[in-house]
Amino acid sequence: MPGLLGGTFDPPHYGHIALAEAAMKELGLDRIMFIPAHMPPHKNSAQVSSKSNRLAMLRLALEDHPAFEISDIEFERAGPSYTIDTIRRLKKRCPGEEFVFLLGTDNVAEMEGWYQPERIFDEIIVAAVNRPGFAPEGRFVSMIRYFDMPPLDISSTMIRQKIKARRSVAGLLPPKVEKYIIENDLYKNNG
């Protein structure tokens, strides 16, 4: 059974990899499909790196993980990337396949503002990783499976801010991703 991990991955980092590894172990998943968002509805698209840069960084981040794959399904359509639409399209492509949608407990309450969030639970199993300092909240709490992972205080926002401030990001993301960011002069003018 595959896990689905969505996000902007701008940039991908060790927190994403640790979450995917923990989900495989704790939930008995056979692989993880990373799904970069085309146009995240909750973010300003002008602040998100290009599709080509995000896909290139994700390929570099995951190249040593044979059980991790990338789906560019959200880039196949115009407009915002809604989770329910992506799930339905994946299920149509892979009939009979059971998927587990992965997120952090900090995102459980945010689901209230998502497009048709209740429909997600009709279509798929939802599992959330427990994150220190975040207790799941909202009407979907009891509908979600929870799992643990080693705590890592890493976010893409933090990495972008450090790069903009010309501070080291060593140890936060794979070295090949850091090298790509430097070579392509990413994140120096945005946070």
Summarize the structure.
With 191 residues, this protein is α/β, with parallel strands linked by helices.
Characterize the structure shown.
There is one protein chain. The chain contains seven helices and six strands; from the N terminus they run βαβαβαβααββαα. Helix 2 runs antiparallel to helix 7 (about 175-185). It has one domain (about 1-155): Rossmann fold. The protein is an alpha/beta fold. Strand 1 (about 1-5), helix 1 and strand 2 (about 30-35) form a beta-alpha-beta unit. A six-stranded parallel sheet has the order 3-2-1-4-5-6, sandwiched between helices. The chain has helices at about 15-25, 50-60, 85-95, 105-110, 115-125, 155-165, 175-185, and strands spanning about 1-5, 30-35, 70, 100-105, 125-130, 145. It is globular, with a radius of gyration of 16 Å. The chain starts with a strand and ends in an 8-residue tail after the last helix.
Any descriptors?
alpha/beta, Rossmann fold, 191 residues, globular, 6-stranded parallel β-sheet
**What is the CA–CA distance across the termini?**
36 Å
Helix content: 25-40%
The low-confidence parts are none
* Class computed from helices, strands and strand pairing: alpha/beta
What is the typical, i.e. mean, pLDDT?
Answer: 92
The CATH architecture term is 3-Layer(aba) Sandwich
Radius of gyration: 16 Å
